[in-house]
Amino acid sequence: MIEFANGMRIYHAGDTNVFGDMAIIRELYAPDIAMIPIGDHYTTSLREAAYACKLEAEDGRSHAFRNFPDPNG
Predict the structure, then answer these.
(1) Residue 17 belongs to some domain of the structure
(2) I want to staple 4 with a disulfide (CB 3.0 to 4.6 A). Which of 8, 43, 67, 69 is the partner?
(3) Residue 20 lies in a domain
(4) Which domain holds residue 48?
(5) Confidence tier at 15 by pLDDT (50, 70, 90)
């Protein structure tokens, strides 16, 4: 978990796969952004990454994080 001075919190899952405690991370730290490794050989598959995002999201939807960076600035 990385927290910036402006309060933005980023969770980086490192090289882990999806695990149930991701829901606890959401409850304790409420990350704005979660970075989930996707590759499927040594890391998370697409299906597992979608589930991990669901565990991290507040309302159970994989796109429900509070903030998204605007790719257009």
Answers:
(1) yes
(2) 8
(3) yes
(4) 2-56
(5) confident
Collapse the DSSP code of 51 into the 3-class scheme (helix H, G, I; strand E, B; otherwise coil) and give the result. Answer: helix
**How many domains would you assign to the chain?**
1
Tell me, yes or no, whether 71 lies in a domain.
Answer: no
- pLDDT at position 38 over 60: yes
Residue 68 has pLDDT above 60, yes or no: no
Helices (H), 10-65: 22-29, 46-56
**Over residues 40-68, mean pLDDT:** 66
H helix count then E strand count, the chain: 2, 3
Q: Name 15's Cβ contacts closer than 8 Å, sequence gap at least 6.
A: 37, 42, 43
pTM (predicted TM-score) = 0.65
